[in-house]
Amino acid sequence: MTEPLLAIRGVKSFYGNIMALKGIDLHVNEGEIVTLIGANGAGKSTLMMTIFGTPQAREGAVIFDGRNITRLPPHEIAKLRIAQSPEGRRIFSRMTVLENLQMGAAIADPKYFADDLARICELFPRLEKRMNQRGGTLSGGEQQMLAIGRALMSRPRLILLDEPSLGLAPLLAKQIFAAIRVLNERDRLTVFLVEQNAFRALKLAHRGYVIVNGLITLAGSGAELLQRPEIRAAYLEAGRH
Amino acid sequence: MSPSPSVQDNSANTLGISVLAAALKEAALAALVALGLFFFLIGIKTDQGPTGALVIMPRFEALAMIVGAVFTGSFLRALIAGNKSIMSRVELPAWIVPKLQWAGRFMGAAFLVFALALPFLFFNNRYVLDLGILVLTYVMLGWGLNIVVGLAGLLDLGYVAFYAVGAYSYALLAQNFGLSFWIGLPLAGILAAFWGVLLGFPVLRLRGDYLAIVTLGFGEIIRLVLLNWRDLTGGPNGISGIPRPSFFGLPFDESANGFAATFGLEFTPTHRLVFLFYLILALALVTNWVTLRLRRLPIGRAWEALREDEIACRALGINTTNTKLTAFAIGAMFGGFSGAFFATRQSFISPESFNFGESALVLAIVVLGGMGSQLGVAIAALAMIGGFELFRGFEQYRMLLFGATMVIIMIWRPRGLIATRTPSLLLAAGKAKSASSNRDGDGR
Question: Of A57, B183, B253, B435, which cross-links A11 as Cys (Cβ 3.0–4.6 Å)?
Fold first, then answer.
């Protein structure tokens, strides 16, 4: 079996003395969409942040492309071409859409800027009309598109998306997920997706993991997990679709 | 079913009464607060009694007047504004906005032309020239701090420390090593930048209030060191006899090889003043130019992104450590330049000139002007320093007016006089919608 692009081995993370991740093992192969689902406070975002080095894992290792990145500072991790669309979108609200995208390209070679910009406009046509508008004036869905577009501007090999459907109307969430699929199928982009919207995420993903209280409790292909009765009970029937 | 006229009438009537009642209630509350607040401040005072001991004298008439004024003012405000909060932004009428924008475009240029012409217009008016130099010094300090506070969003309450470092650096270098102003100036800037980095390191992890407290402490430490290190800094006596700047080697004096004699002019001390005026104008313009340039470079964009969201910056691979340190260093460098200028202009410095009040004043200029706006900071410096001078006659009420103006501006323009942020990069016109939606206020 080939080496996975991202491997997380026995990672434990702490906030002060509180253990948020209690030994996580998972991997993402090149070209895959892998999703991590779980309830609020299960440790989804913490894992995402741990991959990015804030906080750093206290035990275990994060391996990217065969290289141990556990102790690297975030800006070094980003230079290995891992991009992150953090929780809550976190776009620069007083800067224009174009400036936001420019910030996304901060570590990319400037010669690709025009091409990448065109690619993102094609993926999210709504952004193109708003290029000179301040980020804070965009709608929630547009802000999410901008957050993903901004992450893409760094030409990543792996993109980490933290709850891209959070707070979006179902139709917009659908558009976002469709765009993720396009990125994966057309550009062969590897995606690690953290979601509460388990149904959509599992439908989209090749494989999925379920995190409960800082531990992975279930793993399997997306379709497989969708059929599991415990998933249906915990995340689908009781939650939103 | 449409309501009958009488019902409508009735409801309007009750509405009027409820507004009146609410206004009365609010006014009464404000008056109560004022009563509590001013009872000890105004209601009583200590005086010398018949036996020479201190006695407490009531001043209830004055107290009643103040409370009455508060009641009336608050009542009228509540009546006029109704339920609208006093905090709501004053919306300018639609027709005036494009005109203001049009005027704003030429305002910077107009200021510049005026500044360039000022020494000619007021050649014989020492007072105006001195005031102009003072205002420009604060414009420069404001622009320097604007890099740290306005662009990078790092609240720095100790900016005066770098001003002091610059002033003392130049003064000591000139006195001990005989360095001229033109060598001392860059050295003062470099040393101040060095201290900026030194301050930056311990506060890398701090934000907002915590950062403000540490920088405040830093400013005080520098001042206290200057005050107590007598061997080096002369302690409270300061340093005097700091060399004046020369015009490319030509001193501004009556000697045969002085500036006036060389150019065949009649000697007047005003020449030096005019030279100092253009010097600080040039220094300030350099500050402005560098800031505007940096905003278009990756480091300047990173500053602004850092101000907006540090976590997002890290996610995008920006080295936040370097970004913060460069902001501190470059901001401090311009503080150091203005410090060196201050030293050479005064030819005497002492720790007294570098107290917290200066930091607060410069910060007030930046905040009032609108964080990040170059023009706004210049206007605020002019208004604050010029305003101070204007009200010199009403010495007693100056601080009162000053405070009231600040409160009013912050209520009506909570993000400063010029809150609009000019994008550093725009998509070519026609391809995208105009930037008209770039106005201030995103509800934060």
Answer: A57
